[in-house]
Amino acid sequence: MGVIELAWWQLALAALMVVVLAGCTAVARLGMGKSLLIAAARTVIQLTLVGLVLEALFAAERLVWVALMALGMLLIAGREVMARQKRRLLGGWAFGIGTLAMFLSSFTVTVLTLTVIIGPEPWYRPQYAIPLLGMMLGNTMTGVALALDRLTDTAWRQRAVIENRLMLGQRWQEAVGDIRREAMRSGLMPMINAMAAAGVVSLPGMMTGQILAGSPPALAVKYQILVMFTITLGTGFGTLAAVAAGSRRLFDRRERLRLDRLAPPKG
Amino acid sequence: MTATHSLRLARLAVGELAEVSLIIAPGEVHCISGPSGSGKSRLLRAVADLEPHSGEVWLGDIAQASLPAHVWRGRVMLVPAESQWWEDSVGEHMTQDALTDLETLGFSPEVLGWQVSRLSSGEKQRLALLRAISRAPSALLLDEPTANLDEVTTRRIEAWLQSIIREHGWPVIWVAHDPGQIQRVADRHWRIEASGLVEVTRWA
């Protein structure tokens, strides 16, 4: 069973409806029209380009190209994490911490999943490696960005509380403990919600795709469970690393709260 | 009764404020006054090592830099003008030792079960003093400790602070506005000016 062909004019119909939505928010003065359209345009351009890249990558099937692609995805995800923070750490730390956290968690988990669990031949076979890494990075990025944003923004708002706790002789870990827990929570909540709702409220995208492409549902389900678990691992460990490193960076060696290391919010 | 130490500021400089050198003997209260924005609170924050600064602070023969920062702050306790509370109830912020002084400050033990949101600013201020002191510090830095209190309570808090300061032999830096209060509690009085600290003599 093949997939029903989708023509560009059919996509244009969907695009038109997005434009209508943007128009509605503009009329209602909700101020989301522009960013909605920009994001939609980015989706079209980025996905089209990535389609071309994937075609070439699948044809070549070389480790170097797969690794380069993975590196490119990682750097873009790192930039995205940085851009999503209201008060980010200055001096490249926002990018550095986010990227390193995603690298450690997403790459490790993806490579482990490929070599130990799925076992394609060769292990870096792009049809498996790139989509898997993409899903990992996409979700880990959301988790890391949410957690770091919550961490720095809450530390900013509650600086008087943190400093009062320091004055009473608490260690920095204790003084920022509640905020770290909150940041961890906001990073992991989307994934926990997704797992809890999977199959009941929502049919996960990857499983839907596999079924549309003709896989038996039982196999699609197994893949989906595997992917959900690996994404949770990636998001969890990535968020953990980002919150640990980010909260450490909020304090200096003398355990002083250093909010001067945060950039002022833009606009 | 713990061993008493003097608190010594050696060429301490923070922000706009020029270098400050000061020796506070055990049990002595040094009041600091000056216009708002002159750097009184920042000076206290530097002594507690909450802000980057130059110079050194000594408690007896222990240098600030030689102790982990949280240990130093546990010994040289800063009580800010506006206290912060992070748990729901008062009791969760207090140590066991806080119980003995509750009544002196006009509270019944039930206060420990109160919600923090119920406290008035004056109550918060008194409880913040108690919270700090019950952690057994070796020196006190008080930033306008009676700012939110009425005259009667102010006098009572002053008397209570003076008695425990003497009892424990704590060196104290006390930031104050009210000349009357400074008269009552200060062993020495300094004014912050552009050049740094200038001593105000009683008879001036």
TrEMBL record, chain A:
<feature type="transmembrane region" description="Helical">
    <location>
        <begin position="191"/>
        <end position="213"/>
    </location>
</feature>
<comment type="similarity">
    <text>Belongs to the UPF0014 family.</text>
</comment>
<keyword id="KW-0812">Transmembrane</keyword>
<feature type="transmembrane region" description="Helical">
    <location>
        <begin position="225"/>
        <end position="246"/>
    </location>
</feature>
<dbReference type="InterPro" id="IPR005226">
    <property type="entry name" value="UPF0014_fam"/>
</dbReference>
<protein>
    <submittedName>
        <fullName>Putative ABC transport system permease protein</fullName>
    </submittedName>
</protein>
<dbReference type="GO" id="GO:0005886">
    <property type="term" value="C:plasma membrane"/>
</dbReference>
<feature type="transmembrane region" description="Helical">
    <location>
        <begin position="93"/>
        <end position="118"/>
    </location>
</feature>
<feature type="transmembrane region" description="Helical">
    <location>
        <begin position="130"/>
        <end position="148"/>
    </location>
</feature>
<feature type="transmembrane region" description="Helical">
    <location>
        <begin position="35"/>
        <end position="57"/>
    </location>
</feature>
<feature type="transmembrane region" description="Helical">
    <location>
        <begin position="63"/>
        <end position="81"/>
    </location>
</feature>
<keyword id="KW-1133">Transmembrane helix</keyword>
<feature type="transmembrane region" description="Helical">
    <location>
        <begin position="6"/>
        <end position="28"/>
    </location>
</feature>
<keyword id="KW-0472">Membrane</keyword>
<dbReference type="Pfam" id="PF03649">
    <property type="entry name" value="UPF0014"/>
</dbReference>
TrEMBL record, chain B:
<dbReference type="GO" id="GO:0016887">
    <property type="term" value="F:ATP hydrolysis activity"/>
</dbReference>
<keyword id="KW-0547">Nucleotide-binding</keyword>
<dbReference type="InterPro" id="IPR003593">
    <property type="entry name" value="AAA+_ATPase"/>
</dbReference>
<protein>
    <submittedName>
        <fullName>ABC-type lipoprotein export system ATPase subunit</fullName>
    </submittedName>
</protein>
<feature type="domain" description="ABC transporter">
    <location>
        <begin position="2"/>
        <end position="204"/>
    </location>
</feature>
<keyword id="KW-0449">Lipoprotein</keyword>
<dbReference type="InterPro" id="IPR003439">
    <property type="entry name" value="ABC_transporter-like_ATP-bd"/>
</dbReference>
<dbReference type="InterPro" id="IPR027417">
    <property type="entry name" value="P-loop_NTPase"/>
</dbReference>
<dbReference type="Pfam" id="PF00005">
    <property type="entry name" value="ABC_tran"/>
</dbReference>
<dbReference type="InterPro" id="IPR017871">
    <property type="entry name" value="ABC_transporter-like_CS"/>
</dbReference>
<dbReference type="GO" id="GO:0005524">
    <property type="term" value="F:ATP binding"/>
</dbReference>
<keyword id="KW-0067">ATP-binding</keyword>
